[in-house]
Structure formats: structure tokens, C-alpha cells
Design goal:
Blueprint: E1 31-37, E2 55-62, H1 67-73, E3 77-78
Parallel strand pairs: 1-3
Antiparallel strand pairs: 1-2
Domain Dynein heavy chain C-terminal: 1-79
Protein name: Dynein axonemal heavy chain 6-like
Pfam family, one: Dynein_C
């Protein structure tokens, strides 16, 4: 479950996630659609799809806090911390 980090944690690790492809996701309440980026530099060249080339996909993370809170905080997943 997505929660606030412990005091002093800047980039806490995400536990291993099993990605299972499906045709429908069902109920999205209590989920945060977290963007997954290649690097910590979220900016990238815009591709023809309108997404940054640094953007990989959205990951649905379970949470008991409103999605708006995580969006305001700029919460995102990163595959690496430096460029």
C-alpha cells in the first residue's frame, strides 16, 4: 500500500511488483495511477503519442489516501535515480 515515507527517506524503494496484463482493470477507487519514468529527469522529448520519451507507463498502486494528494506531492516511480 502506498503511504508516506519514513522520516529522512528521500527515495524509498518499491517492493517487487508483478505486472499481469489484463483487458480491464475494474474498480479504480483506492488506486493511484503513478507514472513510471526511466530517470529522475521527468522531462523528455515529446513523442508522437504526446508522452515524454522518459515516460514508461502508469502503475496502479493501492492507497487509502486520495489520488489528489499524491498528484499534488508529485509522487512518481523511477527506474533509476540519476541520469
Amino acid at each position: 500500500m502506498l503511504t508516506d515515507p519514513n522520516p529522512g527517506e528521500i527515495n524509498p524503494p518499491l517492493p517487487a511488483v508483478l505486472l499481469v496484463p489484463c483487458t480491464s482493470v475494474g474498480d479504480l477507487s483506492n488506486r493511484y495511477r503513478s507514472p513510471l519514468y526511466k530517470t529522475s529527469a521527468r522531462a523528455g522529448v515529446l513523442s508522437t503519442t504526446g508522452h515524454s520519451t522518459n515516460f514508461i507507463m502508469a502503475v496502479l498502486l493501492p492507497t487509502n489516501i486520495s489520488e489528489d494528494v499524491w498528484i499534488t506531492r508529485g509522487c512518481a516511480l523511477l527506474t533509476q535515480l540519476s541520469n
